[in-house]
Structures
1.
Amino acid sequence: MSKKVLVISTSLRTKGNSAALAAAFADGAKEAGHEVETVSLAGKKLEFCRGCFVCQTTQKCVIQDDASLIARKMLTADVLVFSTPIYYYEMSGQMKTMLDRANPLFPSDYAFRDVYLLAVAADEDEKAMEGAVKGLSGWIACFPKARLAGTLFGGGVTNVGDITGKKVLDAAREMGRKV
């Protein structure tokens, strides 16, 4: 059965390593016959959540920027995929801001059930992504019908293109195929 997959690439480097990982996952999901849309946070206007909680009654954010549009896409996706570079052993600030701004989804009848995390870091140890996994898992815990369906780590990559030729790209493509 075809699923609606939303891949959110959170790096500000559009040709960076986490973007390549996101693209490989998207390619695999497309190969499997799923409807895939990739959104990059690069160049998007994302204001911080104000904590006003108006969205808890209206299911709409009072801030009208790109985060509101992306959150609406998240609402109707069956599968969410976040791809992030690891900064100081945590997800990117852009990813955290997007998760916060997805607060209007909390009281909604959201479609997503499976959430994936793809991460890259200069550090080669997979433990480098534990903070990002913990942060995303905390967000997912607020959505009882959703689960963390998988994680993938590409370590030892710093400069744009370092991920080229690495096996983790094949693993991302395969993970996408199995959605």
2.
Amino acid sequence: MIKKKLTELSILIAEAEKFAESESIFNNSALYGVTDGKAVGTYLEHKFKEQLEKTYEVGGSSANGLDIPSAQVDIKVTSIKQPQSSCPFKSASQKIYGLGYNLLLFVYEKKDDPQTKTSRLNILHSVLVEKERTGDFQMTKIIRDILVNKGNADDLMACFFDRNLPVDEIEAKALAEKILKEPPEQGYLTISNALQWRLQYARVVEMAGEISGINLIRGGRQ
């Protein structure tokens, strides 16, 4: 069978919805007693990719570290207890213009059953955040407000340093000039500075389905 290359986000959203539904009622003996969130996340990512690869070509090896290179998508799996994860730091501009790829987010609640010695991962929320919306909420909001109020490069650079954006003066000037020519979209992640970006997802879960580019697959507001 010739597999179709998976490039359309609409197809990925439909497949993610089916996966979340089936996984949420699956009794899993392999994860019983497992408390390591990274192990749970790796399991769920691999299982979803294996499901996709039965039907679609997803781009071979994970180019640029992405789980689904053909659709420019990275999969993030996180517990409802603290919906966050990390991702590689490439440049400070990611906080303003986004990560450069789409995010498929699965937020789960794990429950173990001592009687059956199985675990169930209830996928409470699944959201696809398009790459244009993966910037930092506060940083992009402040920048867009500066531009509305006719701010200049000096105003933008002051904003960068006030909010501890990891740039030196030369980088800050170049970034400010780019923003004046190419204003960023409003982002909806919370991105904390670290050796790796720390991504927090509470806002995208809350806003899913209400903002263009934040696609609700399952769950949403409680």
3.
Amino acid sequence: MKYILFLIVLLAAGCGEAPVRKEAVNPPDKRDEVVLYALGLMDVDYRFGGGNPSSGLDCSGMVSYIYKNAVGMKLPHNAYRIAKISRKIGRDELKPGDLVFFDTLHRPYSHVGIYIGKGRFVHAPGSDGKIRISNLSSRYFSSRFDGARTLF
């Protein structure tokens, strides 16, 4: 009788489904979303005070627009104010999606871009340009580098 009961238990166990293990699904990395959104704005026209790609973007307008649409983070449309609400990090700590600031108007944090890796960043360079990629080690930007900051 013990053997029959044992066989019944074995057969019943064999007919059952194995428990399904649910893997944790990680949401897309927010840093990647910021970088992809920034790269999607390449060649958009610069416009002082601009906050919309259809009419043009300035540097802080670009950053605000990207963070709002890529990760739902509302930022001020002002490079200095963005710097003040972000956390300072070392240049060697930069990760894609972090912010790089420059003194381009003889005042701190007057220009901002989004770091994309390998010493490069996306920014809206000025009234004669379009959103583009530049290098932190270029003579112009290396001499005006004002710090790295993060919102993550």
4.
Amino acid sequence: MTVVSDTSVLRYLVTLGQAELLPRRFGKLLLSPEVADECRHASSPAALRSFIDSAPAWLDIESAPLLAVPGLERLDRGESAAIRLALHRKADLLLIDERIGRSVAASAGLRVSGTLGVLADAAERGWLDFDLHVQRLLAETNFRVSPQVIEAVRGLLQNSATE
């Protein structure tokens, strides 16, 4: 499975101490150099900078060619590069949280998920408590999401548990 990540999902999972969910679920993870640079930026959490500086073997950094994709001009360098890399590698999944980035990626034909999706998938597999980790995500990071989205994801989890 080919999975590309933008900065946000990696940032939040590292902050929660849950980065190992990524290789456990997906095997390898691809990052663009631009995303790696965002992870190393002085404004990034120290845990993320440390993580990327001693990147695990399951994390590969790969450049993507310039591609003309409608909407990329509205995104930051990392989001744009992640989408280009996902398109170039014909990724099975792009991990990205930002609403505009998700919209541009989906319009380009990419399947997308975000931090909540990774946490929900892990909870569905019995690997963690969804509500506990969402509470931590909201309390310990600058992650923003509406209560309605959390409820919708929680509802999907409850529905899958009863099937």
